[in-house]
Every structure is written in structure tokens, then in C-alpha cells.
Specification:
Radius of gyration: 15 Å
Shape: globular
Strand order of the largest sheet: 1-2-3-4-5
Number of strands: 8
Helix content: 25-40%
GO molecular function: acyltransferase activity, transferring groups other than amino-acyl groups
Number of helices: 6
CATH class of one domain: Alpha Beta
Strand content: 25-35%
CATH architecture of one domain: 3-Layer(aba) Sandwich
CATH topology of one domain: Aminopeptidase
Protein name: GCN5-related N-acetyltransferase
Keywords: Transferase
Low-confidence stretches: 1-7
Order of helices and strands: EEHHHEEHEHEHEE
Distance between the termini: 42 Å
Largest sheet: 5 strands, antiparallel
Structural class: alpha+beta
């Protein structure tokens, strides 16, 4: 099956990574990441079926054509290995106007990519790209309060806690990053 829109999509290269919008051909590696219990331990959603996974990937792909931004697939430049997702999206979570009207950052890395600084490198690149192409904006995030690595990454990116919420029956910390935030 051909991957539509791949010629007009952004590609970001960092010293170690390649970031690009997802393609249909990413499905099996991408789904495997979400099926790994170690990777998904902080996700508030149940284990997705193949159909739910397919629909989620289509939603990620659709963000790009509808909004001009979305989640990037993150790949190792040296060997092309899939490492995870990083980017900004509009998930319409129903968490209030102060949250839902802002682009929401998200990241998830495959278990084999943990502890190598890939998430930080990819998140910096995605934020820089977003600011260049869409202008500086306030961005938001929700993170499980026990996900300390993700909370540390959010702090490095300039996010600060703004409150707490329950999303899909799970406690979350709500965070925001002002348009003028500097990354540590």
C-alpha cells in the first residue's frame, strides 16, 4: 500500500535521529511499542486491539493534513530503527479550555530506546520545528505523576505543573510551557 503525502511532509534530522510523520508502513513496529508492557506502564488507555491501533495511527497521520503538525515517528539515523513518537498534536481531551485550546506535546519511546537521551533530542527538535513553522505558542502536556523520567524531560523542555486531572480513570499532572519558554 502506498504512503500518501510523504513528499510534502517535514523531515527533521538531528545528530542521531530522523523525525518524520508516520507512514502506514510504520504500523507493525509502532504497534509493537504500544504492546510492550514496560513501555505502556504509564499510559492511561487499555491495551489496544489491532483495529484500535490502526485507527490511532491513521489519526496521527491525519493530524498532518488537517493541522500541519502532529507526532513524528523517531528513527535512529544510523540503522533506521524505530525508536518512538514525539511531537505536538490536538487530542481534544476535554480537560478545559486552558488545556484543550493549546497544542499538546506527547512522547513515548520504545523500551530499547530508554536511557539514551533520544527523547530529549527528539523533543527539542520537535519544539524547535513547531516554533519555526507555527510560531511560538503556549503548549501543554499531561503526564502520570509516577512517570519521573517523563516529568524530568518536561521540566527540561520548560514545562511547569499547572494542576492535576483524571484522564481515563488515571491521575495525571497537567503541565504548560509558555510561548517564551527556554529549554534547559
Amino acid at each position: 500500500m502506498a504512503d500518501p503525502l510523504t513528499l510534502t511532509q517535514p523531515v527533521i534530522e538531528t545528530p542521531r535521529l530522523l523525525l518524520r510523520p508516520h507512514r502506514l508502513s510504520d504500523f507493525h513496529e509502532w504497534r509493537a511499542m504500544f504492546l510492550d508492557e514496560g513501555t505502556r506502564r504509564f499510559l492511561s488507555s487499555p491495551l489496544p486491539s489491532e483495529e484500535e491501533s490502526w485507527n490511532r495511527l491513521l489519526r496521527y497521520i491525519g493530524h498532518w493534513s488537517a493541522l500541519g503538525y502532529g507526532l513524528f515517528g523517531v528513527f535512529d539515523r544510523a540503522d533506521g530503527r524505530f525508536l518512538g513518537d514525539v511531537g505536538l498534536a490536538d487530542f481534544h481531551r476535554g480537560l478545559g479550555a486552558e488545556f484543550d485550546r493549546c497544542p499538546e506535546v506527547a512522547w513515548i519511546m520504545a523500551a530499547a530506546a530508554h536511557g539514551h537521551g533520544y527523547a530529549t533530542e527528539a523533543a527539542r527538535a520537535a519544539h524547535d520545528w513547531f516554533a519555526r513553522t507555527h510560531g511560538p505558542q503556549r503548549t501543554v502536556a499531561i503526564i502520570d505523576p509516577d512517570n519521573h523520567p517523563s516529568l524530568r524531560l518536561a521540566a527540561r523542555m520548560g514545562y511547569h505543573p499547572t494542576g492535576e486531572c483524571t484522564y481515563r480513570n488515571a491521575a495525571c499532572v497537567m503541565l504548560a510551557r509558555p510561548a517564551t519558554a527556554a529549554m534547559a
